[in-house]
Amino acid sequence: MKLAAFGEDAFLRELQDRVPSSEHVSIGIGDDAAAVSVPDGEFVLLTVDTLVEGTHFLWETTPPRFLGRKAVAVSASDIAAMGGIALGALLSLSVSGDIEVETLWQIVEGAAQRCEELEIGLVGGNLARSDGRAVVDVTVFGHTQAGKALRRGGARAGDAIYVSGEIGASAMGLWLLQNGASLSPSGGAIMPEVLREGPLPLAERCLRAHLDPEPRLGLGRELRAHDLATACIDVSDGLSLDLHRLCRASGTGARIEEQALPLAPGALAWKRGPGGDEVYRALSGGEDYELLFTARDESAIESFRVTSDTALTRIGEMTSDENAVELERRDGSVEPLGARGWDHFQERRS
User: pTM score, two decimals?
Assistant: First the structure.
């Protein structure tokens, strides 16, 4: 069977059964990062993510500096989802010999700048020749207390579902890029006349959400340190798809409420054509890099939310109906929420 028909999630699930474990591996394939036990009672966390030209970025719409920044952020987000402390990063570049050296320096400078902001050391990497598409690959490593890493499994029926920040801005930012908008090297929005029905400040926020996301490292650490979350995942491939993944790992179902969703203002500022539901587009768009987590003690979350630097929104509740994920619409009707989101090996979002 071809991978396009088999699907990314199915391949990764089967991969878990095919790859043998090791006595030092405490958390292996299936979560946002791996965890390796070390003698002093800590888990070493390791994660890697790849940005491929033509799949994840286009040179004409992605300033090289932002490419470096995003490559670091998307890997760091996996450490955040595990509640870990990120320590260092490795940057690997596979590019054509025809690429301008200045372009490479801008990628590296962007990555180094993002690492400095996140208090991560950029400690090395690799440079290789590619006769095809450019590939930017970042490995981030960190640590957390043994046995206390946040996991996708662990939620139970009745747990409240929370998400940090806003959702939908990145998906709209991608759509704006695909329709002629761009972000200048200094970070300002450049908009064609056809897209100017939406406010320029919202366009800039959406473009930056897509090109320069903010990993929630501090929030992840706090959720883990204070035992606030029963399960957690970062929203990389779409809230609906990632919620399905969390439910599958926990053996639960979920119901979320449309009226509670913290949709970014920019997610609804432009009409993307007939026949589309903007709420579903926001839920399946992906690359929000917010934390989606569950909690049993809602009063503790409410107390934490008062002092948190990041907005936290209760959007629903876990249910006992295994793998059944539902959306309660504003009119009170309830409908199944499919596992819609980004799948690398399907032509459309799943």
Answer: 0.89
Place of tokens 């088999």: 6
Closest Cα partner for 208 from 150, 144, 289? 289
226's tokens: 């204070």
The end-to-end CA distance of the chain, in Å, is 18
Neighbouring-strand partners of residue 85? 143
Q: Does domain 3-145 have CATH number 1.10.3720.10?
A: no
Q: Are 159 and 296 in contact (CB under 8 A)?
A: yes
Average pLDDT, the chain: 91
CA distance 349 to 342: 5
Instruction: Name the nearest CA neighbour of 221 among 74, 114, 118.
Output: 118
Judged against a pLDDT cut of 50, whether residue 350 lies above it is answered with no
Domains 3-145 and 160-336 in one fold: no
Class of 160-336 in CATH: alpha beta
Contacts 24+ apart (CB under 8 A), 145-148: 145/41, 145/42, 145/43, 145/224, 146/26, 146/37, 146/41, 146/42, 146/43, 147/43, 148/83, 148/224, 148/227
pLDDT in tens, 120-179: 989 888 888 898 899 999 999 999 988 899 999 999 999 999 999 999 999 999 999 999
The burial class, CB within 10 Å (0-12 / 13-18 / 19+), for 336 is exposed
Q: How many helices (H) and strands (E) does the chain have?
A: 10, 15
Domains in the chain: boundaries? 3-145, 160-336
CA-to-CA distance for 184 and 211, rounded, in angstroms?
A: 11
| One-letter identity of residue 155 | A
3-class secondary-structure state, position 214: coil
